[in-house]
């Protein structure tokens, strides 16, 4: 099978990730920090080292502010539901994934919350429109860094500056498609809440996500329970990150995330990015004289291309490709508002998403089939 569905999850993972993850799990797979024996302390030390590695990778606020979650959806639910209260206003964008849109919609039914959705022009939100919509009541601004449908990329540094200059709102960046693809500097971009998922371009397994907070962000825990210390306290201990991490950690996921980030540092994310962009421009060139409508970023964003055809539906295209042994994805990709904005609602698009392990030969194979459809 030729795999072009890396935006859904990266596959395969680098060989070294499988190896390191299994090795660490075999040697240190006990409950970290909770037992009174050396191995538990050692496992705990690896967890803390991993937090430091992650904080350094994103230039975050130190290991105490790196919270392990289950995935991006979990991080977003924790941030959105743990922060917003009656009367709050939120600004977000039409680029968002349902993991932002649905928690906001559910919360709107429960609380008196106002949500404004910024549209895009060409591929970016308007900074002026953002500035005009910021008010005293704006508690949170949520922006998708790189779209999982089109690869459209937002200038998060400029957005962070506008937010901080004109309001007291917190800035949340959904970096699910950008972490591991482009450098992200949490402090420099004034990001209060950085969320991402492990299993995409960070090359970790499924079931591990991240929530990186600025120290002044206080969110209420979505889950409460065991923390392995202060058991006499009837409530969740308020020290970070324990406040937001009830229950035993996904230790194999953390080991995988450590190995994935080490792979990114050793390989250089600029080399991975360069390769994905090369494959993307190669396919675009191949399809230049075809009849497909193509939706993708014109900038140096991720290797994501959406397309549709006037003859076949996206699902028919994906099925034809699957019969030829090529894995892609069709439909709305959990981002219905963006499809409305680019005119591809309700059928959506066929999405081709490159990864570091794709080759030019695979792209030739794909383009020959697409051109013959
Ligand atoms: C932009 C974006 N946000 C959030 C998510 C949700 O990620 P997860 O399914 O790992 O929670 C995705 C997954 O496709 C995504 O592309």
Structure description:
There is one protein chain. The chain has helices at residues 15-28, 38-57, 72-83, 98-110, 127-133, 156-166, 251-267, 269-286, 314-323, 336-342, 360-372, and strands spanning 2-3, 66-69, 89-93, 114-118, 120-121, 124-125, 138-144, 170-174, 193-197, 209-213, 293-295, 304-308, 326-327, 329-331, 349-353. By secondary structure, the chain is of the alpha/beta class. The protein has two domains: 2-11 and 268-372, Aspartate Aminotransferase, domain 1 (Alpha-Beta Complex), CATH 3.90.1150; 15-266, Aspartate Aminotransferase, domain 2 (3-Layer(aba) Sandwich), CATH 3.40.640.10. Helix 8 (269-286) runs parallel beside helix 11 (360-372). The model has no long low-confidence stretch (mean pLDDT 97). The structure holds pyridoxal-5'-phosphate. Pyridoxal-5'-phosphate binds next to helix 3.
């Amino acid at each position: 099978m030729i795999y072009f569905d890396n935006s859904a999850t990266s596959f395969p993972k680098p060989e070294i990730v499988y190896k390191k993850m299994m090795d660490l799990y075999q040697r240190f797979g006990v409950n970290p920090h909770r037992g009174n024996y050396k191995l538990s302390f050692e496992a705990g030390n690896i967890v803390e080292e991993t937090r430091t590695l992650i904080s350094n990778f994103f230039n975050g606020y130190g290991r105490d502010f790196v919270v392990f979650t289950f995935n991006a959806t979990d991080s977003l639910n924790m941030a959105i539901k743990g922060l917003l209260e009656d009367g709050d206003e939120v600004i977000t964008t039409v680029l968002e994934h349902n993991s932002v849109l649905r928690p906001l919609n559910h919360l709107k039914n429960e609380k008196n919350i106002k949500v404004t959705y910024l549209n895009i022009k060409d591929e970016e939100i308007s900074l002026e429109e953002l500035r005009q919509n910021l008010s005293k009541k704006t508690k949170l601004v949520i922006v998708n860094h790189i779209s999982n449908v089109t690869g459209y990329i937002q200038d998060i540094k400029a957005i962070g500056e506008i937010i901080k200059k004109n309001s007291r709102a917190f800035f949340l960046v959904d970096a699910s498609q950008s972490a591991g693809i482009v450098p992200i500097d949490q402090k420099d971009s004034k990001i209060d809440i950085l969320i991402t998922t492990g299993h995409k371009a960070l090359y970790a397994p499924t079931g591990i996500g991240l929530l990186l907070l600025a120290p002044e962000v206080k969110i209420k825990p979505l889950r409460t329970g065991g923390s392995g210390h202060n058991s006499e306290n009837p409530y969740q201990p308020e020290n970070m990150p324990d406040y937001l991490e009830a229950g035993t950690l996904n230790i194999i996921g953390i080991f995988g995330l450590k190995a994935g980030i080490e792979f990114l540092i050793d390989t250089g994310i600029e080399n991975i990015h360069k390769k994905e962009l090369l494959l993307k421009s190669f396919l675009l060139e191949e399809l230049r004289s075809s009849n497909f409508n193509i939706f993708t970023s014109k900038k140096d964003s991720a290797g994501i291309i959406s397309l549709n055809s006037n003859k076949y539906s996206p699902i028919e295209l994906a099925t034809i490709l699957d019969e030829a042994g090529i894995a892609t994805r069709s439909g709305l990709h959990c981002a219905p508002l963006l499809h409305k904005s680019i005119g591809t609602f309700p059928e959506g698009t066929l999405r081709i998403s490159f990864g570091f392990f794709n080759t030019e030969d695979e792209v030739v194979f794909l383009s020959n089939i697409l051109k013959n459809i």
